[in-house]
Amino acid sequence: MDSSASASPSAAAAADADRYTYSPRLRWQPEVEEYFAAAYGRERFARISEALAHPSCYSCIRVNTLKSSADAVMHKLMNLVDQNGICGGINDLEIGQLNGVEQEHEGSSLVHKCPYSGLENVLFVQGSGPHALHYDSQPDQSIKEVIVSRKCAESVLRGAQVYVPGVLACSSHVEKGDKVAVSVAIEQPAENGGWTVGITRGTVLQGLQSDAHYEERKGLYIGQGITAMSRSGIFRVPHGVAVAMTERVYKLPSFNDVLEGEIFLQNLPSVVAARVLDPQPGERILDMCAAPGGKTTAIAILMKDQGEIVALDRSHNKVMDILKLAAELDLNCIKAYKLDALKSVRKTNEAKNIGMAGNCATVTLAEDPEPCAKVDAEITDTSEDSSTSVVQTDNKRPDDKRYVSKADLRKNLRQMRNGPGRNNCSGGRVENSKGFLPNSFDRVLLDAPCSALGLRPRLFAGEETLESLGNHAKYQGRMFDQAVKLVRPGGVIVYSTCTINPGENEALVRYALDTYKFLSLGSQHPKVGGPGIAGSCELLNKAYTEEWLTEHESELVQRFDPSSSLDTIGFFIAKFDVGQKED
């Protein structure tokens, strides 16, 4: 009796130690898992899947060499660490410079230059993890907990705090200043065959096995922190920090408001993609899917801000983000337009009927097509019930008068007063484009929208099916067709994605080479990633064969494996040299 009683506390401690860990398992649709296992081999795909559930253990910084240098930024980071501790929370790490000589100090080098040729403007800042944390509770009390959404948890693993909208559930009697363990609720199989989180926001946790997702959250604890407000406040206010993280499974330095305009935090493969494009000063470059502007600004810096970069996105707010980033980095050669990349090519017969400037037809618009701020309104009838009693005169064309409804004018005024509408427009001007003439760009970067199955950390992948992956590939093929029309003979197309899906990568390259005989794969510099996948795969019960690359072609592309020693996101880059086009 005494023996079993003495063993009970140790067994409970062991159970807690096993529970309060971070050991996620990425879930896929069975058909997708089999497809990737066939492409990579089952063991390699298992390693990739495990790596995707964890963040990279370092941050990659691109230096704006038009404003500073890698050496200067390194010294500034050293001073900032000494003064402000931007890398606070990372233990046993020191800053030093690697010049090919091993550093003679304890711990690892925190900041060092990228060792790859052609990437001299890149710095690596080392983080640490995964760490085994101790989730202590008060005597005779269970650990107070907060459950966050998957998206929130993925951000926390990259260094963010827990914000109010991301909190799903919280222990009862949590007050401001309490220490709480943070875990994540991941989608689970639903009865209808889909996936669901299954937690109503505001759920109370009692520290019992009957709590929501109690068993499912085992091994999904991402850290602990101090609550910035009480439980009632968390579920009452719409925004703000809910939990300030004090201990994390992964510790990565924060760069918020650090050296603004001099550095840009960017994944290494994205930096490589801009380099592979090899833009030259004075050229005309097209970035077809440019938001948020990281690669666009990288290209501008490589061109020494000389020439023209046309950056496209179909979202008003994202175009504004591109312009904001360009201004922050003090770049002037970037022109951003609101345009769906699938409509990038201007039809020749339409171009003849309108005035063309620089091979591009554009019209400047505010978010509202008829903003009342741009016209002078003259009231011709003061009656409140008058429906067509306003004369609007365009300031630029005073002779052009038109009658509009006072109701429409009041609607415009309400929109201006009430701010963003259902589309969450952030306001401000963007330029709309009607498209561009064929053969009007020297180089085109198509960083295509994709399934994003290479981004890290990713805690769930079950939303993708073979059908949805195929739809992504079709969409990318249509975009690539536009890119081919827009680039001039002798030019270059760089195609990239942040997914591990061969159907969106190697299969797209196969389509491009088979469809456009004047395209050929070009050699890439710098060459940091590994080779692509050669061969093919039978799909849909062998009814369809997805063709990939030959052995020779696979050596000309770059594939970044998240499970490799590079520790990057999953990424793919292909470079096409454009020959003489057929008429």
Characterise the protein shown here:
- Residues 379-399 are annotated as: Disordered.
- Strands 16, 17, 18, 19, 23, 24, 25, 26, 29 and 30 form a 10-stranded mixed β-sheet that branches.
- Helices cover 26% and strands 24% of the residues.
- Helix 2 (30-40) packs across helix 3 and helix 7 (268-277) packs across helix 8.
- The chain is built from 14 helices and 30 strands.
- With 583 residues, the protein is of the alpha/beta class.
CATH topology of the domain at 267-345 and 432-578: Rossmann fold
Largest sheet: 10 strands, mixed
What is the CA-based Rg, rounded? 27 Å
Distance between the termini: 91 Å
**Average pLDDT rating:** 83
The CATH homologous superfamily of the domain at 267-345 and 432-578 is called: Vaccinia Virus protein VP39
- Coarse morphology: globular
Q: Number of helical runs?
A: 14
Taken as a percent bin, the fraction of beta residues is 15-25%
Helix-strand category: alpha/beta
Unreliably modeled segments: 1-7, 88-108, 354-358, 360-396
Helix content: 25-40%
Number of strands: 30
| CATH C-level name of the domain at 267-345 and 432-578 | Alpha Beta
The CATH architecture assignment of the domain at 267-345 and 432-578 turns out to be 3-Layer(aba) Sandwich
Keywords: Methyltransferase, RNA-binding, S-adenosyl-L-methionine, Transferase
Active site: 498 (nucleophile)
Domain SAM-dependent MTase RsmB/NOP-type: 193-579
Binding site for S-adenosyl-L-methionine: 289-295, 313, 340, 447
